[in-house]
Amino acid sequence: MQHTLRLTEQLIAHPSTTPDDAGCQDLIAQRLAPLGFVCETITSGPAHASVTNLWAKRAIPHVDIAHTATNSIAIAAQAKTFVFAGHTDVVPTGPLEAWASDPFVPTHRDGKLYGRGASDMKASLAAFVVAIEEFLAVSPEPQFNIALLLTSDEEGPATDGTVVVCQALRARGETIDYCVVGEPTSVTRTGDMIKNGRRGSLSGKLTVKGLQGHIAYPQLAKNPIHLAAPALADLVAIEWDQGNAFFPPTSWQISNIHSGTGATNVIPGHMVVDFNFRFSTESNPEGLKQGVTAILDKHGLAYDIAWTLGGLPFLTTPGPLVGAVQAAILAETGLNTQLSTTGGTSDARFIAQICPQVIELGPPNATIHQIDEHIAVADIEPLKNIYRRLLENINALEQAARA
């Protein structure tokens, strides 16, 4: 019996539509506690939409200095912490009648496992747990602390999930040295792509003020659409930065424009534009804000802007964690994995604020958030093995550091 596959099936059977954990974290904690993990539940958010977070840590035990070498306590205190991070919540199923099988009944067809969350990200969660079990069975006294950080608020607003746990860890002085997030990063085969960074996200809601009037008397009105059009053209055309070796140039995109009363003979009194920056490490939020307002001011617009910072960019340059991940993937699959910073934001953006080395690594993402989401069964066991090999590589790094 493939233990990772079985646990994946069990997790899919828990209908954990965001922000409901639906018992997934309890199931995982029950597997971790016998291994020496101290499991802490951190709840957050309003009562009607409570978020469940799990921080489970297995620390190197503090040793009795009277019965061992004089540097043992120092070693325990200096031990680095490796974290597997992820989310137990899934996106809504959409219309149930559109699914070929119940999204919360794990179903096998043609070598694939179907169910909501199969690839995003319950297979990764199962692989975390079984990889840890197998690693500790062979190396019961590793040279580093192991932890899991799980949330039921990643697919939702992400305001009461990983960010809350990171704030709590920072407040009590806990540190994280390495982190792997189980997001589905692969393209066609597990391990063919990992994310060693992500772009930042900065959104704005721009309200351009005009003066409503009859369309036959434009001299008595101020059309905000006409007034804003040249400024929007400038914003589209500007080169915000040139990117770098790891990131493409910063992108500014309009997602929505709304104006007018619905009547065809009325010049609108205002226009609302929703836009978003996906920005590289070559730019920063304040500089982008200043760039936008400078263009709007140049065109003499009357306006208001409400800004929302979705997350800062982060980058883990090639180093110990990247090397350990690359080696684990190569040993298991024979693939030379591709480093990438493409795609949307994830909870890695919060972890990167307290951890210097963060990587995202998970199964193929072709069907995530779709009707009939699935994962190839052949991708599950290699994912677990990559995670286990990664733990072995981190242990070797820490042993070498103390040699």
UniProtKB/TrEMBL annotation:
So where does Zn(2+) 2 get bound?
D120, E155, H369
- One of the GO biological process terms: lysine biosynthetic process via diaminopimelate
Tell me the pathway. Amino-acid biosynthesis; L-lysine biosynthesis via DAP pathway; LL-2,6-diaminopimelate from (S)-tetrahydrodipicolinate (succinylase route): step 3/3
Which terms does the record give in the GO molecular function aspect?
A: acetylornithine deacetylase activity; cobalt ion binding; succinyl-diaminopimelate desuccinylase activity; zinc ion binding
Keyword annotations of the record: Amino-acid biosynthesis, Cobalt, Diaminopimelate biosynthesis, Hydrolase, Lysine biosynthesis, Metal-binding, Zinc
SUPFAM superfamilies from the entry? Bacterial exopeptidase dimerisation domain, Zn-dependent exopeptidases
Question: Where is each Peptidase M20 dimerisation domain found?
Answer: 196-303
EC number(s)? 3.5.1.18
Family (UniProt): Belongs to the peptidase M20A family. DapE subfamily.
Q: Which PANTHER family match?
A: ACETYLORNITHINE DEACETYLASE, N-ACETYL-L-CITRULLINE DEACETYLASE
Protein name per the record? Succinyl-diaminopimelate desuccinylase
